[in-house]
Structures are given as C-alpha cells and as structure tokens.
Amino acid sequence: MMKKVLSFLILFICSFYFGQQTSFKFDFGGNRVEKGFIPITSTSKFDRKVGYGFMDVSGLKSVDNGGNALTGDFITSDKPFYFSVAIPEGNYDIRLNLGDTKGTSETTVRVENRRLMLNDIKTKQSEIVEKQISVHVKDSIIRNQNGEKIGIVKLKPRETKYLHWDNLLTIEFNDNAPKVCSVIIQPNKTAKTIYLTGDSTVVDAQYEPWASWGQMLSYFFVPNKVVIANYAESGETLKAFEDRHRIDKIWTQIKPGDYLFIQFGHNDQKAGNSTKSGYRKRLKEWIQKAKQLGVIPILVTSMNRRVFDENNKIVNTLDDFPDAMREIAKEEKVNLIDLNALSKILFEAMGPEAAKKAFVYYPANAYPNQPNVLADDTHFNPYGAYELAKCVVKSIVDQNLPLKKYISKNYKNFNPNKPDDVEKFHWPESVFMESLKPDGN
CA dist 434 to 253, 381, 426, Å? Predict the structure, then answer.
C-alpha cells in the first residue's frame, strides 16, 4: 500500500510542478498492481481532486485470476461503464488491454459523446488483446499560441451536459462482457487531425437513439496516424458557427497538413436564407483561410432527407445548397465528398419503408420518457449514421484522396446500392437516452 501511495504522490508532485498531467498508466482490477501503474478498482469513483475514476461504480466488479499483475485481473460490469480522466485538450493515443485469462470477453469502446472506436472486440478463452485508439479531447476556451485565453466558444445550454466539453476524457466500455485490464494514455503530437464542422447530421450526439456520421468516422481510420476532432453542433449554420466562435476555436488549433471538413446546408436553407445570403461568401472565406494556414479543406454536401416521391425516388429538399457547394469546390479547386448524391443512392436502395430503419423512427415508449412516436426524416440512428460514414469513406477511397492511405481494415468496399443488413448491425446502447429532438431540421 505504501508503494501505491508513493506512486500517486510522485504523479501529483509532477503535475503540480510541470503542469497538468498528460500521460497515465492505469492498472484495472484488484489489489495487485503492475509497477509504475495507478491502481483502479471497482470502487474507484471519479474525484475531481484526484483527476480520474469511474462515473458510476454501481455494478462494477474487480476480478483477479492471479498470474501477471497487469493482465491477470480486470474490471467488468453487466452494464456500460465510464472511466474519466482530467486531461488537457489535445490528441491522445490510448492503449487498452482487454480480455480474461480464465474466460472470454466481448467489448465495444466509445469515447466522449458515443464516438465509436472499437466495435465488438471478442477474445477467446484465456486471451488478452492489446488495442489502440486515438482521441481528440477539447474544451471551450480559445487560446493564442502562448496558451493565453483570448475567447470562448458560446455553448448552447444543452451542450453544458455533453461529455465532450467537460474538460475530461471519458471512455465508455460496453457490450455483453466488457473486461478491461489496463488503460495507457499518451499524447500524440504527430497525427493528422481531421476537424469536422457541421450541424446535427455531423455532431457527436450524446443521446440514444440519435447519431451522426461524424461520430462513426474514427472507426474507419488507422489510430496513431489520424485523429477525428468533431466540432459540429446541432442547429448550426455557417454564420452561427462563426458567431459562436466555433470556427475561431478551430483556427487557433489546426496545424499545416490537417484537414477541415465542411458540411452545412440543412439549417442554412431555413426561411430567409439562400445560397446568396452569405453562404457562398463564408464558404469561400473558410477555404481561403484554411489554405493560408496550410490546411486541406474538403467540402461535404448535405445528405438528403427521407422524402420520397410516388416513384420511390428521393426528393431534393435542400434547394440549391448542394449544387452551390459543388460549384464552389470547382471554383476554389478543393476536393468534394458528394454525400448528397451518395445518400440518394443509399436511401433509394433501401426504399421508403426500410429507410426508416436508418432514421429516428420508433414507437412510443421505446425509450425512457418518450410517450409519443418518434418519426424524424432528417436525423439518423446509429445504423443510419454508420452507413453514411461509410459513404464518406467510400468517396475518399474512390477519389484516391491522400487520406486514403490512412483508412483502416474496418472499412471494406462499400456499395450504397447494397446497404448493410440492419439486423446484423452491432450497437450496444449507452446509458444516455433522450427523446428530445436535436436542434435543426
């Protein structure tokens, strides 16, 4: 026990004198602890003063099978559990040891607002596997190059409850038998960062059953090489993204060689707005600013809504916004991911009724505090978001964009004319659920 206390004191002193700690080595399990690791047991509840721990310890179990101190024990639960670490904003590599030296395991890992990282990782009897993920952690403070505060992102009230603005890294362990032996966190200063801007169809949605393609994208990229930084938010337009200083936050962080994905249109088309009322001008300004910073802008046309005509063909409900973005991509000589066209193929292949399985269509009382039917033709559930993320990756691959070399083996050749079987889609739900529709339409 004295060694554990001494180890913690050393970590505390280092963080006090040298700034907030950015590297951690956690040994999950019982009382036996690997040298140089911080012990995490089933009673390690998060404490701001300590800076790490579980969001909720109810239902957690520490299991020790003996043998190796690091991999011979683990933490598990019959329900999703969440481990948080106070850590400065930035990119991080996280190495996880998963499995059971005397049994099997099945673990899905997501971070922050349900951002998919590892899906259905199964280990055989007595098998331990090491997996790596890369995560972007952010806060709402805008800083200059000296680290001095020069502004703040104007968050909406509901954003204050999000797990991605809370100055913590939160890891969700989910699935039928999640068993976690260790977690090692280290800064990543070399990965390319893909910054996502957009609305509710791109945002990392916190609550089931809502989801967006942006929170699925990390799953399809090689960790350590590429990190997804999702700054999209529900209800936003290009102008609102500027007014709330979201783009200012990105400009102060983005580095030469990074990417800026831009997808707006759903909310920009609202009454009184047109592609001529600032949309084109702002898009071009963002593109020019990105180029000046050595950043690679990529435009993404807004996907279609689930609106079909009498011939089961998708109806364009986005006015000329997709065409405007296509034209600007040509004028400014930047790459375009035509998600509008790909989603048309995808939804028409599904058909009007089957397409409901990709959107938020659920009977009353399918979720807590949901007395009414959910029937939303704009917003997606996890399956729909996953299919759209595949469309985005397909476009990168088909166009042979430089990002293609960072696509992981999780991506198999995808044909939107042949959507994945929804019954085979794997998504164990998180504990966060809400029937309230996101901002925007």
Answer: 32, 12, 20
Instruction: Summarize the confidence of residues 298-308 as an average pLDDT.
Output: 98
Would you state the pLDDT for residue 271? Answer: 57
Query: Treating both helix axes as pointing N-terminal to C-terminal, what angle do 321-332 and 280-292 enclose, rounded to 10 degrees?
Result: 30
150-193: pLDDT as tens digits:
999 999 999 999 999 998 999 999 999 999 999 999 999 999 99
φ and ψ at 325, to 5 degrees? Answer: -70, -40
pLDDT tens string 251-269: 999 999 999 999 999 998 8
Q: Are 371 and 364 in contact (CB under 8 A)?
A: yes
The full DSSP string for 347-403 is HHHH-TTGGGGGEEEE-TTSSTT--S-EEEEEEE-HHHHHHHHHHHHHHHHHTT-GG
- List phi, psi (to 5°) of 324: -60, -40
Q: Is the pLDDT of residue 134 over 80?
A: yes
What's the CA gap between 73 and 62, in Å, rounded? 7
CA distances (Å), origin 285, targets 11, 89, 108, 335: 45, 27, 40, 16
Q: Please report where in the chains the tokens 């590599």 appear, as a residue.
A: 93
DSSP states along 237-269: -HHHHHHTTHHHHHHTT--TT-EEEE---TTTT
Tokens of 106: 């099945």
pLDDT at position 6: 43
The residue assigned the tokens 């590297």 is 23
